[in-house]
Design brief:
With 346 residues, the protein is an alpha+beta fold. Helices cover 52% and strands 19% of the residues. It has a domain of 89 residues: Roll (Pdz3 Domain). A four-stranded antiparallel sheet has the order 6-5-7-8, with helices on one face. It has a two-stranded antiparallel sheet with strand order 1-2. Strands 3-12 form a two-stranded antiparallel ribbon. β9 and β10 form a beta hairpin.
């Protein structure tokens, strides 16, 4: 990777993190919570600026961030402290981080789909001898759903068959304005080790009006969330392992390699490719932070839900112990993934 590609990768990654923390920051300010520090990165502070009440810091490693609020992790007598606020306000402040990631992914999708259109799930060619051809599908048919799962993009055809490998599919498709149904069972290809329906496409891009762009931008977020959740499901079920995951090092390499490749096709293609990657990363960060794991936003939201049900605050020692264990496990996982990323580079 070139120095420029690494810088671009870090800038994209940092921008997504800043937007996440901006969610916490803006909602905290809306509820008049004192924010002591707004930080990008981990490790030693490179430089900082003291605002009216918030210290803005840039740290050495651009792989994280924080929005440190008064009374967030300790008791405070300040009336503007986080711990003094009603439970519903604390819930919204914490939830705002992941929400802003989804908002960012949606805004970027508006730009991407508005500029390029969307890849319509239209059959362009059929592989000879595969289930789609044998079932009578024809070029020009538009796939509408698999087993009741609505299909809006061509990419959803391949990703659905990947996550539901070998499963028989009830297919709904559109031909000449009429709706048809058929059943397909993917064929296993030993050379690639994957299942295929025999459908080829992906070059039919559709540009619509403003309403269409908005609608398909929502579909894009739905698609990204679906992929993230299904990937987590495969990870927890053992179908994927830690070596299949990418941490900050792996993500920076992926962005850098993609940037280098895209520059061969001009500025516009490069910008669109970087936006596409940013959509994926922002949506995934939103999903990951909502997982009910201590030390993540989802873990804190779960505690708030429990407190709401019990109608009392959890014992601070118990909550502190849970967060400490969760943080230790999260850091361990990050180190393992980082070592895996570095070993791939070598």
């Amino acid at each position: 990777m070139s120095v420029v590609s690494i810088i671009v990768a870090i800038l994209i990654f940092s921008f997504i993190i800043i937007f996440h923390e901006l969610g916490h920051f803006s909602v905290a300010k809306a509820f008049d919570v004192r924010v002591n520090e707004f930080t990008l990165g981990l490790g030693p502070t490179l430089f900082s600026i003291q605002g009216k009440e918030t210290k803005f810091c840039l740290n050495l490693l651009p792989f994280g961030g924080s929005c440190v609020m008064e009374g967030e992790d300790e008791e405070s007598s300040d009336e503007r402290a986080f711990n003094k606020k009603p439970l519903w306000q604390k819930f919204l402040i914490v939830a705002a981080g992941p929400l802003f990631n989804f908002i960012l992914a949606f805004l970027l999708s508006l730009i991407f789909i508005g500029s390029l259109g969307y890849d319509a799930p239209v059959v362009e060619n059929l592989m000879e001898g595969y289930p789609a051809e044998e079932a009578g599908l024809l070029p020009g048919d538009e796939i509408r759903s698999f087993n009741g799962f609505d299909i809006h993009f061509y990419s959803e055809i391949s990703i659905y068959t990947f996550f539901h490998a070998g499963e028989t599919l009830d297919v709904e498709y559109l031909r000449d304005g009429s709706t048809y149904h058929t059943t397909l069972t993917p064929s296993y290809d030993e050379e690639s080790g994957r299942y295929f329906l025999g459908i080829q496409g992906n070059s039919t891009r559709v540009k619509g009006n403003a309403f269409s762009v908005i609608k398909y931008s929502f579909y894009e977020i739905r698609y990204q969330i679906y992929v993230a959740l299904q990937s987590l499901k495969m990870l927890f079920s053992g179908q994927l392992n830690v070596s299949d995951m990418s941490g900050p090092v792996g993500i920076v390499k992926t962005i850098g390699d993609s940037y280098t490749e895209a520059t061969h096709y001009g500025v516009f293609v490069t910008v669109m490719q970087m936006i596409s990657i940013a959509i994926l990363l922002s949506a995934n960060l939103g999903v990951m932070n909502l997982l009910p794991i201590p030390a993540l936003d989802g873990g804190r939201l779960l505690i708030f839900i429990i407190e709401g049900i019990l109608r009392k605050k959890l014992d601070e020692r118990i909550e502190g112990a849970i967060n400490l264990v969760g943080f230790a496990l999260l850091m361990t996982l990050m180190i393992v993934v980082m070592i895996s990323d570095i070993s791939k580079l070598m």
